[in-house]
Amino acid sequence: MPHQRIDLCSLYRPVTKWSVRVTRQNAGAAISAAIDVALRRPRGPVHLELASTISRSEAILPGSLGEGEQPPKDEQPSTISLDEVLGRLERSARPALVVGINVEPLSTAGPLRVLAERSEIPVLVSPKAKGIFPHDHPLFVGVATGMAADDRALEFIGKCDLIIGVGFDASEADKTWPATSPVIWLEDAPRDRAGWPGDYLVGSVPATLSALTAGYRGRHEWTAEEISVARAIVAPKNLAGPGVSPAKALAAIREELPADGVFVFDVGAHKLLGGQAWSADRPLTFFMSNGLSSMGYGVPGVIAAKRCAGSRPVVAVVGDGGFAMMVHDIETAVRGKQSVVYVVFNDESLTLIQVLQSRRKFERYGMDLGGVNWAMVAESFGAKGIRVASIDQLKRAVRDSIHGSVPVVIDVPINASEYALQI
């Protein structure tokens, strides 16, 4: 089929907030509405189709949207009141707070922590919400849905008799929602609720959390020991053979990166490991691609993060497979004088897929990569390249690179056997 005849609006509609074809008659109204829809919470992409045959035509302003071109309206309103939420929370014997990305991290982190500490209710987060609640806090249980040690987190959720979903969204779960207990979803804007049972309270999430803190008089049954035992911990394994433990490598990078440093995770086996293990104690210091999980995200992602982070150091961990997909962006980082650090976990394999092949008893096929020297590749683009062979060398390389003036690629040989034990 000629590409000109593809119905692009139908193609993009399932993955955008709105998709519309721009015409001379609706151009002004469509663009104005597109900006409004994109910025309306929950914020997200809008698709405008503009045919080359009319792109140089003069629009009829102000224009209007025809039938079938109207932007979507807000979804369902609240199904429960604040007083009802408070009452159910106070009556709950084993409640938990599960935090997702559909909140404003900076304004939510404070009220969330105050509520958790005043009520002593345990907290879990989705992978992309890491940092909104401190990783080292005694009330933190772990990352739920999809990362390493997920069975521990899901087992804990299964013991709860009430879940308060704080900006948690269906798209953040990589499997069917495991909890059979009631769920109350706190959201600052109406959204699609298809397939997600429970009650919804729509309004300012920080204000809702503060109101719950002020009113809560309940006494749940969780003990500090139960919460501590339940924590989803990823400990390095004793490995045979060459290469560095990925868990130890992540711990080493964490040790060298300051608390306000920004960390970007690419997609692969290392993401599942680090999505649980990485300690993030501040909002907007941890970024990853989850859900569709686009390999190579970390290579341009760390450049974007650096442009927002200012003088704070920014580090990305990228597998050799993902790095190969987007390595050309090193030229962009060099040209833009971006002082970013890439740590390439080089195991010469698409390990996550290989682990899945093995577990399903498939023959190992198409997973192995050639022995690429990524430090030399980086230098060919004008970046600084470093190859390390030990944890001590990795720590020194990160320490020396995070405050540099040029992009740095640190090539680390990884012992991939740990992944099969951890994820």
Number of helices: 16
How much strand? Answer: 5-15%
- Taking the alpha carbons of the first and last residues, their distance comes to 42 Å
The proportion of residues forming helix, as a percent range, comes to 25-40%
Strand order of the largest sheet: 5-4-3-6-7-8
Strand count, sense and barrel status of the largest sheet are: 6 strands, parallel
Shape: globular
Structural class given helices, strands, pairing? alpha/beta
| Cα radius of gyration in angstroms | 24 Å
Q: Care to count the β-strands?
A: 14
Mean pLDDT across all amino acids: 90
Unreliable residue stretches? none
Order of helices and strands: HEHEHEHEEHEEEHHHEHEHEHHEHHEHEH
Can you summarize this structure?
With 423 residues, the chain is an alpha/beta fold.
Describe the fold and architecture.
- The model has no long low-confidence stretch (mean pLDDT 90).
- This protein starts with 7 loop residues before the first helix and ends with a helix.
- Helix 4 runs parallel beside helix 6 and helix 8 packs parallel to helix 15.
- Helix 15 links the parallel strand 13 and strand 14.
- Helices cover 35% and strands 15% of the residues.
- The strands form 3 sheets. The chain has a 6-stranded parallel β-sheet, sandwiched between helices.
- It is globular, with a radius of gyration of 24 Å.
- 43% of the residues are buried.
- It has 16 helices and 14 strands.
- It is an alpha/beta fold.
- The longest helix has 15 residues.
